[in-house]
Amino acid sequence: MTDITDAYFSNLIVRLEELKQTLAEPMAQAADVILDAARGDKRVYVFGTGHSHMLAEEVHYRAGGLAFTVPVLVGSAMLHEGAVISSVYERTQGLVRPMLERYGMQPGDVIIIASNSGVNAAPIEAADYAREIGAKVIAITSIAYSSAIANGRRRLADAADVVLDNGLPPGDAVLDLEGTGLRVGPVSTAVGVTVINAIFAEVASELSKSGDAPVYLSANMPGAAEINQKLVRKYRPRNPHL
């Protein structure tokens, strides 16, 4: 392993160890919010623009994942239909509401919104829309990043019921390329995926105590087809991506 690859691994490991402590309380709060929704047969939506949308895909129809999660996936807000225009989209006011309306979010639902910078229009509007209809908002964001660039603007953290501060620096990348002024090694996706999977594991553990944890199996595991088909039949009416 070279010095820089070792540095990346070490940096990420240190950050995750720190987050185990600093996020212990807000992660417990997030798990409680999601548990309340699950026990009321509600849904947990996951939304992010740009690279943050990968957290929504991470939890969707995932082996070991919870079946009541619903990814908010709109091509123009992602990267595959045009990365440059998606960056414009996430900064444009007024585009998120019609996008979310097609998902049928209801009072008592939860939406997890990932935005590392925490200041773009799309994630903040998503949070406002969710709270208007009575859904709870959990934010995964960098307080340091959003505080550094807000310049008086509202931040996602200001619009959320539970804030999970990923502790990352402005700009996301954590490694300096000596003599260039450049930084490489973004970590927000790795951190975000770890945090959201840890919370869902806690939720599943609590639900399993009453024998009601709707968890998908890997398609290659014995009995997976029957279990997964049953879950899909139950949750497909409110998940357009199943």
UniProtKB/TrEMBL annotation:
Residue ranges crossing the lipid bilayer per the database entry: none
Q: List the keywords (alphabetical).
A: Isomerase
GTP-binding among keywords: no
* Ranges where the SIS domain occurs: 30-209
Name listed for the protein in its UniProt record: Sugar isomerase (SIS)
Q: Which domain of life is it from?
A: Bacteria
Q: Which organism is it from?
A: Rhizobium leguminosarum bv. trifolii (strain WSM2304)
What InterPro entries does the record point to? RpiR-like_SIS, SIS_dom, SIS_dom_sf, SIS_GmhA/DiaA_subfam
Q: Listed GO molecular functions?
A: isomerase activity
What CDD domains does the annotation carry? SIS_RpiR (cd05013)
Q: Which PROSITE patterns match?
A: SIS (PS51464)
